[in-house]
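Case study 2.
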Amino acid sequence: MIAQLFDIAGILLDNETKKKKSKNTKNKENCERQMFKAARLEKIKTIVAEKKQVDVPSLSILLSVTEATIRSDLETLEQEGCLIRTRGGAIFKASSEKSYQDFQLFNSFKMSEEKEYIGKIAIQLINEGDSVFLGGGDTCAFIAKAMLKRKNIHAITNNVFVSNILAKHNSIDTILCGGYVSGNSMSTFGDKAIQSLDGLCINKAFFSVSGVDIVNGYTLSSIDESNLYSKVFDIAEESIIVADYNKFDSNSFVKWKSIDSAKKIISNQELSNNYKAFFFNNGIQVFTTYEIESMPL
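Prediction:
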C-alpha cells in the first residue's frame, strides 16, 4: 500500500516536472520567436533602405517565412513609419516633411506659386468620397498638398512624393502603386505598377504631362509612364490634364494622347489665346489660375 502511494506521488511529481519543462520550453520558443521576428524586421528595414522597394514573394523566399508573415511584418513597419506599403510590397519612406522638401529641389521655384494655384483649382473638381488618381510630377504633388483640406478621399498614385504628403492625413486612404521606382521622377512604373491598378475604380484622374502640342497632342518623358497612364486613362471615369503654360507648344519623348482626348484641362492664366480657342471649339473645359481668386478655397 505504501509502495503504491510512493508510486502515485512519483507519477504526480513526474507530471508536474514535465509541465514545468513544457512551460519553460514554450516560454523559450516564444522568446526565440520574438527574437527571430525582431531580427527579421531589422533585416526587412535594411533591405528596404538599400533597395528602396521590395515585394512580398521575394521577401518570403529570402527570409524563409510565409507571405502572410511578411505582410504582417510590413504592416508593423508601416505603423512604425519605416516604409509605405504598396499593393504586393513596400517602398522606403523618408519623413513627409523631408520628402516635400526634396520634391521642391526638383521644382522650378519661379513656377511653384503657379503650380500651387493649379492644385487649388484641381481640388474644386474633387468631391467627398471620390477615388482620385494623381500622376507623377511636382504639379500633382501640389494637388496632393491642396487635398489635405479634404476628407473621405481615396487616393491612388504612382508618385512617391504624393504618397508621403497624403500619409499625414487620416481621412485620405492612399494606395501607392507597386513597381520599380524611377530615381529621376521618384515615381513607380512597370508591370507591377500597372497590375496594382486591377480591381480599382477611379472617379477622377489627374495627369501631369511633359508637353502639349496641337499636332502631337500630349507627350510624356518615358514609355513606362505612357503605359501606366494609358491604363489609368482607360479605367478612370474622368481624365483631367494639368500643365503649366510653359509645357505648351513643346514636345517630349513619347506621344501619349491626342489633345482632344481629355475634356478638362487646368493651366495658368498665361495660356495662349490660340489654345484657349482650340479647347473651346472642341468642347474642352479650361480652368486657369486667372479664376483662382473667385473660387472658394
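The first strand starts at residue 53 and ends at 55.
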